[in-house]
């Protein structure tokens, strides 16, 4: 079973949300890595191309606390294993106004999650 990750790019980046998959809860974090010159130029960043990029962090919520599973640069259509999960990112275009800020600027992040 593959599901879409509930990323809301209009909420801005960095972004964090909880995800229930099966009988477990996970914490997903996304942030953008871009240099000051790129951000100052403005516009939309293709985070799955060359240059600035998207980073995903996944941790499983266990009774004893968070268990880190992965922190990694996202690559277009390359499966990202995270413990029992597998994430795949298909598109990540973020307007620089969504870096540390929310708003409807046309940013999109399309990703899926399924069992590993």
Largest sheet: 5 strands, antiparallel
Taking pLDDT < 50 over at least 5 consecutive residues as the criterion, the unreliable ranges are none
Mean pLDDT: 96
Gross morphology is elongated
Report the order of strands and helices. Answer: EEEHEEEEEE
Q: Termini, distance in Å?
A: 10 Å
Strand content: over 45%
> Given the structure, what is the number of helices?
1
Rg: 14 Å
Structural domain tally: 1
Oligomer: single chain
Structural class: mainly beta
Q: What is the number of strand segments?
A: 9
Helix fraction by DSSP (H/I, runs of at least 4): under 10%
What would you say this structure looks like, in words?
There is one protein chain. The protein has 116 residues and is mainly beta. The chain has one domain. Helix content is 5%, strand content 54%. The strands form two sheets. Strands 1, 4, 7, 8 and 9 form a five-stranded antiparallel β-sheet that branches. The protein has a four-stranded antiparallel β-sheet with strand order 2-3-5-6, with no helix packed on it. A hairpin with a 2-residue loop joins strand 2 and strand 3. The radius of gyration is 14 Å and the shape is elongated. The termini are close together. The mean pLDDT is 96.
């Amino acid at each position: 079973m593959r599901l879409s990750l509930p990323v809301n790019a209009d909420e801005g980046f960095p972004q964090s949300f909880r995800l229930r998959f099966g009988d477990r809860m996970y914490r997903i974090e996304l942030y953008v890595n871009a240099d000051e010159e790129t951000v100052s130029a403005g516009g939309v960043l293709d985070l799955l191309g060359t240059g600035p990029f998207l980073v995903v962090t996944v941790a499983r919520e266990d009774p004893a606390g968070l268990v880190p599973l992965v922190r990694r640069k996202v690559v277009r259509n390359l499966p990202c294993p995270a413990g029992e999960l597998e994430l795949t990112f298909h598109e990540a275009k973020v307007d620089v106004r969504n870096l540390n800020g929310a708003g409807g600027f046309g940013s999109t992040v399309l990703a899926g999650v399924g069992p590993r």
